[in-house]
Amino acid sequence: MPHPRQTSPTAAFAGEPPLPVGVIESDYPDKFGVPRQPGLAPAAKAALVLVPPFDDPLAVRGLAAFSHLWLTFIFHKTPPLDDNGFTPLVRPPRLGGNRKVGVFASRSPNRPNRLGLSLVTLERVDTQGGVRLTLGGCDLVDQTPVIDIKPYLPWAEARPDARAGFAPAPPPEVEVAFYPAARDELARRDDGASLQALIEQVLRQDPRPAYRHGRKPTARVYGVRLRDVEVKFRALEEKRATLLAVVAIEPLPGRA
């Protein structure tokens, strides 16, 4: 009989995956452009809708007394392990996408079990006809399955003196500007002000591939999907600094 430590990980975790307790509804239809950490785009709208049998209001009794939540979720847009198996090294964007570190020394979505952990603000608990949690600072793609919820305890979990390895400070931000056509589109929308704030907060993080950061801008136009639109932008050089300019804001097919 093999020693427990010699049992293969695949055998140890064989069987049904954990059941989601709920699903995220968010302003991020796609993973491109999603802030790499929670709280960086507070204008993003999101909610966690609990699914049966976990949508019993009794399951969230007392939750409204907490301001923040830990969400354990599945990176459902990240493919599961293929026949090549486990990859121990990843390329964090904070290191320019060129240097490698161990997957367990990173917060990369490319994880062995695709599990993620996110700290979000709890803005409202609605128990009319189920359970719906309105969230702030969410960094999760729309339809992300959430497998657990826990309240955040600042006295136990806030550690200001903790070391942060290769990410000791928030990532630098870039300037964002809007072409006239993009501003006109925002002016026509009822949610134009909040959408503009969301666009600015997302683009300030520079969602372009990490290897493009710090390089001379090109004429390439990128597209990031937010709410029901595709935001098209390009990089410009302004006083030797990168500026991301929103060229156009176009409705997404089927979501206009």
From TrEMBL:
InterPro entries: TrmO-like_N (IPR023370), TrmO_C (IPR041369), UPF0066_cons_site (IPR023368), YaeB-like (IPR040372), YaeB-like_sf (IPR036413), YaeB_N_sf (IPR036414). PROSITE patterns: TSAA_1, TSAA_2. The keyword S-adenosyl-L-methionine applies. Keywords: S-adenosyl-L-methionine. Residues 18-161 form the TsaA-like domain. The keyword Cell membrane does not apply. SUPFAM superfamilies: YaeB-like (SSF118196). Pfam families: TrmO_C (PF18389), TrmO_N (PF01980). Coiled coil: none annotated. This is tRNA (N6-threonylcarbamoyladenosine(37)-N6)-methyltransferase TrmO. It comes from Halomonas piscis. The gene is tsaA.
